Amino acid sequence: MGSIFGREPAAIAAFIAIAINLAMTFGLGLTVQQVALVNTLVVAGLGLIVRQSVTPVSSPQLPVGTTVGTPDGGAATVTATR
């Protein structure tokens, strides 16, 4: 996912919460319960987007012969798959 959905979800949720609070300061007629509901929906929606972005859809496997880096900074080649 590119654009806004690839960004930090906590920052997006904070921005939306700040925007709502600022709008309330200038006369937006929302109750505290409505603001809490909006914040809950934003966080839940962003949580679903993040989950979709970070959950693997299959068991990844590297093809035999692929060169990979090792923890000590060296290189190795994949020789077998499980």
Task: Name a few traits of the molecule.
mainly alpha; about 50% helix; two-stranded antiparallel ribbon; about 80 residues
- Uncertain runs with pLDDT below 50, 5 residues or more? none
Q: Could you estimate the helical fraction of the residues in percent?
A: 40-55%
Please give the largest β-sheet. Answer: 2 strands, antiparallel
Q: What order do the helices and strands follow? A: HHEE
Distance between the termini: 30 Å
Total helical segments: 2
Count of DSSP strands: 2
Any idea how many domains?
Answer: 1
What is the molecular shape?
A: elongated
The amount of beta strand, in percent, is 5-15%
Overall structural class, as computed from helix and strand content, comes to mainly alpha
- Average pLDDT, all residues: 81
The radius of gyration computed from the alpha-carbon positions, rounded to a whole number of angstroms, is 22 Å
